[in-house]
Amino acid sequence: MNEVETLTLEDESNNNKKVKRKLKLWVKLLIFIIVIILLVIITYSYLLTPVKTKSEVIEFTVESGSSVYNVGEKLSKQGIIRSSFAYKIYVKLNNINEYKAGIYKLDKSYNTKDIVSILTGNMYKEKGAYITFKEGKTIRSVAKVIAKNTDITTSDFYSALEDNEYIDSLIDKYWFLTDDIKNKDIYYPLEGYLFPDTYQFKENVTAREIIEDMLEQSDKIFSKYKSLIDKSSYSIHELVTLASIVEAEGIYDNDRKEIAGVFYNRLKAGMSLGSDVTTYYALKVDLGERDLTSAEYNTINPYNTRTSNMAGKLPIGPICNFGETSLEAVLNPTNSDYYYFVADKSGKTHFTRTYEEHQKIITELKAAGNWIEW
Question: What is the pTM of this model?
């Protein structure tokens, strides 16, 4: 019995040792797994951090129809995020399915979460609003974009524009704003003066804060050309007005100086500008909304340059905002003997010297199905 008991005790001791060894292995394995998980979490978190510590803003385009994964690859290639793989995990975990197509200004000092938040339009809820105002848009469009992206209604925005004391204070503050913008026939006093760009606004931003942020950017752009503006025989208001028409008429940057030259030729010759875009603005019809009637083109209005009473005159004020290239075009126009131009469906602008040549081009474009109709 003693021998049997001894064997049993030895077996039990061996079993205990085996169990202890197995426990040690499991503990080691568990620790190893925990370490791996922690390393993965740390690596994943790091890959979502900003690419740079200092601000570096670049333009980024989300093409229509792009998937969130394709956007991630593009963000990685342009050095805006550290890892497209970590980005894919993030958008998957957060159920991000789509972005709105458009041009965004993204800061490389933002982390992946913030970049995604901007692209989804949720940034305003968290940090404020990134809003892009495009060239060639009217104040009416600006008001709608603001209302869509903030808590400011279009009525709030228009109220700021209609406050005469506020407009006077802006004229006192900014050298490029003059009493010309207070003419009673002007639809919106700041039309053309709010520079199109991408802006970041804090949450609960006011209409006046947005206006002044945009005017600050206008000041930066206009100040670059102040010496040329001062040398011009035209007032700053007239130059801004002409730049707005050039913006609306010109599709490509390299055409705008030529277009500006045509308008100067017509003004010097005592001709009306004959610009359709001014008629659309006069009637408060957006370009592309519909074609205008003959009667509408002949409407007497201080904005409408299609009528004979506007011979040798500019409209009473700007008709839209404009980019820097349109301002450059007006200050450095191409000298030519052209008096007419027309654009086809492809955006190509055809310049001609005489009315007969102009009509011939129009006839040819219509025959080829290359004539623009809204």
Answer: 0.69
